[in-house]
Amino acid sequence: MTAGLQIKNLSKNFGGLQVARDISVDLPTGARAALIGPNGAGKTTFANLVIGALQPSAGSIHLDGKDISSLSEAARVRAGIAKTFQITNLFRHLTVRDNLRLPVLERERRTSRLFGRYDDDEAIEDEIERLLSDFRLIELADQEVRSLAYGQQRLVELALSLALKPRILILDEPAAGVPSSDSHLVIDAIKRLPADLTVLVIEHDMKLVFEVASRIIVLVNGGILVEGAPNEISSDPSVRELYLGAGHA
Ligand SMILES: Nc1ncnc2c1ncn2[C@@H]1O[C@H](COP(=O)(O)OP(=O)(O)O)[C@@H](O)[C@H]1O
Ligand SMILES: [Mg+2]
After folding, report:
1. Any idea which ligand is nearest the CA of 35?
2. Ligand 1 neighbour 43 (Cβ under 6 A)
3. How far is the CA of 40 from the centre of ligand 1 (A)?
4. Which of 101, 203, 212, 248 has the fewest Cβ atoms within 10 Å of its own Cβ atom?
5. CA of 116 to the centre of ligand 2 (A)
C-alpha cells in the first residue's frame, strides 16, 4: 500500500521548447503534495502528462508498480487517476445531486457489479448522500449548480472527481477564482479527502498550499528547482528569490 505514483525522468518538448525537463517525482500512497511555480513553469503540462492527455518525449509513469506510460487517458482514468472536473463540465441546469449521480453511474457501468437493480439504485443514492455530506453540500443538493456561489461550484467539482473513486487525484488550481473569503471551503474539503487517496495540488495560492501539503515541489522552466517539506521550501533562498520574494505569495 505504499507504492502510489512514481514519475521517472519525464520530459516533454513542444518543437524546440522544452516544457518538462527530466522530472522525477515520488508520490507514495496517501501523499499530500503540492506543485508550485510561476506562470508558464509547466505545471499544467506536467498534470497533462500524468493523466495521459499528453504523451511525454521521454520518461515513465508507474502506478502502484505498474508502468502506465503507454495507457490512454481513458485507461488511466479506469486505473484510478483523476484530475478534477472543471466547472465548465458541470451541468449548470441540473441540481447538485443530479450532477453527482452521473459519475457514480458511469463508474458503476464499467465495474459491472453483481447486485440486483434495486439494490444497485439504493446503493448509488446512498453513495450520493455520502458525497453530499462529505463535501458539506447537503443543504444545496436540490439547487441547480448555476445558482451556487463560485466556491461552492468548486466543491461540487471536487465531489464529482471523488465519485470516480480515484487512487490519485490531481487538483489544478482548485481555488482559482474563489474569493479569499470562501477559500477555506476548498481548503477544508481537501483536508477531508480520504487518507489513502494520493493527492497532488497545483496551486498559486500559497495559503492553500501550506495548509494542505506536507511535500512541496517547485517547478521552474519545466524542471524541479527544489522539493521539500513546507518549512524547507518557505526558508529556501532560491524559492524566496524566485517566488515568495517576488510578490506572488
Ligand atoms: N500545446 C502546446 N504547444 C506549445 N507550447 C505549449 C503548449 N502547451 C503549453 N505550452 C507552453 O509550455 C509552457 C508551460 O505551460 P503550462 O504547462 O501551461 O504552465 P503553467 O501551468 O505552469 O502555467 C509555456 O511556455 C506554454 O506556453
Ligand atoms: Mg497552469
Report:
1. 1
2. yes
3. 6
4. 248
5. 44
DSSP state of 110: H
Could you tell me if 37 and 152 lie in one domain?
Answer: no
Predicted local confidence at residue 189, as pLDDT: 92
115 vs 48: which has the higher pLDDT: 48
**DSSP states of 82-95 as a string?**
EEPPPGGGS-TTSB
Residue 171 has pLDDT above 70, yes or no: yes
Residue 43 CA to ligand 2 center (angstroms) comes to 5
Indicate whether 45 and 160 sit together in one domain.
Answer: no
Same domain, 5 and 70: yes
> Which residues lie across from 106 on neighbouring strands?
none
Domain that holds residue 39: 1-80+172-249
Question: 6-10, 228-232, 239-243: lowest mean pLDDT where?
Answer: 239-243
Grid cell for residue 113? 457489479
The CA–CA distances, whole Å, from 75 to 52, 72, 160 equal: 9, 5, 18
At 199, the amino acid letter reads V
